[in-house]
Amino acid sequence: MNPGARLNPGTRPRAVHARLIYLHGFRSSPESFKARLLARRMEELGRAADFFCPALPVSPREAVDSVLAQYQPQPQDTLIGSSLGGFYATWLAERTGCRAVLLNPAIRPAGGLAAYVGEQPFFHGPGSFRFEAHYLDELAALEVPAITFGQRYFLVAATGDELLDWREMSAHYPGARHWIIPGSDHGLSDFAHYMDEVLAFAGIGSTRG
Question: What is the mean pLDDT of residues 69-86?
Answer without folding.
Answer: 97
